[in-house]
Amino acid sequence: MTARTRLIAAFTLLAFVAAVLLPPMRQPLDYHDFADHRHAYGIENFLDVVSNLGFLFAGMMGLVIVFSGRTKFEFTGERWPFAVFFVGVLLTALGSGYYHLAPDNETLFWDRLPMTIAFMGLVASQIVDRINVRAGLRLLLPMLLLGFASVIYWRATERMGAGNVMPYAVLQGYSVFVLLLLAWTSPSRYTRGNDIYWVFGWYLLSKLLETFDRQVLAMNHLVSGHTLKHLAAAAGAFVVCYMLLRRTLKPAADSSAATVRMGDRLHPM
Question: Phi/psi of residue 33, each to 5°?
Fold first, then answer.
């Protein structure tokens, strides 16, 4: 077992323990009170709703790219984690749009569920790319089920009057950490592998915009931080589109050397 694998295993165990043992954390009700309540064309919270079109366009474009003949995949099965990612992005447009029409805990469930699909798909895609094709594909379904479980558990606990969003929060943080760790320690078999850092950058910007929702609107009086958060997060998905369109498989010698150095073996699917 490599040092990288041991670190991922240790962090996975730590995340599981944290999700189980940390004190329960309820979803704050003031989370749903976003800065921009303006309506237009009969749509409440208009900009927070329509800004989800970015996810819709990115998801549709990504699926076309994944299943087009122009996209380079060394093994046919490699396309499925990316397909799951873009399905999650597309469904986020629908779920988040629905949530922002009438924000509360019940509608928030439909926002968070597709986001876990996107997160798990992206993590699995990087395991496939940087560690082992077969292992990444086998982990895709269990990871999706774990993501579903974290959101379903949160909603179930809210309905019982003792909400606990902690497992979902831990899972999201865990996903980001694993993505960064894989990018830092494991070379991609393709060019443009470092584009994943741009995805993280847009994600980080989206979280900052979400945090300073009211301050952003107060500064420009046109658009809120949460509206811009949607556009920033969608930009991260567009980066994945660009990466897939532009990347090529590295020369066999370089790819094989990287694989041997990591102590893994790739298997055609």
Answer: -90, 80
Contact assessment for residue 56 and residue 98, using Cβ atoms and an 8 Å cutoff: no
Token representation of residue 236: 């991260």
* C-alpha–C-alpha distance, residues 5 and 16, integer Å: 16
Which pLDDT score, from 0 to 100, does residue 267 have?
Answer: 42
pLDDT in tens, 128-137: 999 989 999 9
CA distances from 70 to 1, 39, 52, 119, 244 (A): 36, 42, 27, 25, 9
Using CA of residue 50, residue 149, residue 120, residue 15, what is the dihedral sign? positive
Token pair 């443009």: residue? 192
Distance CA 234, CA 246 (A): 19
What is the pTM (predicted TM-score) of this model? 0.89
Gap between the Cα atoms of 64 and 182, Å rounded = 26
For 61, 68, 225, the CA distances from 210, given in Å and listed in that order, are 25, 34, 6
Res. 53: pLDDT tops 50: yes
Instruction: Please state the length of the chain.
Output: 269
Residues 19/71, Cβ–Cβ less than 8 Å: no
**Cα angle for residues 4, 208, 99 (degrees, 5° grid):** 100
Q: Which of 2, 258, 22, 217 is nearest to 130 (CA)?
A: 258
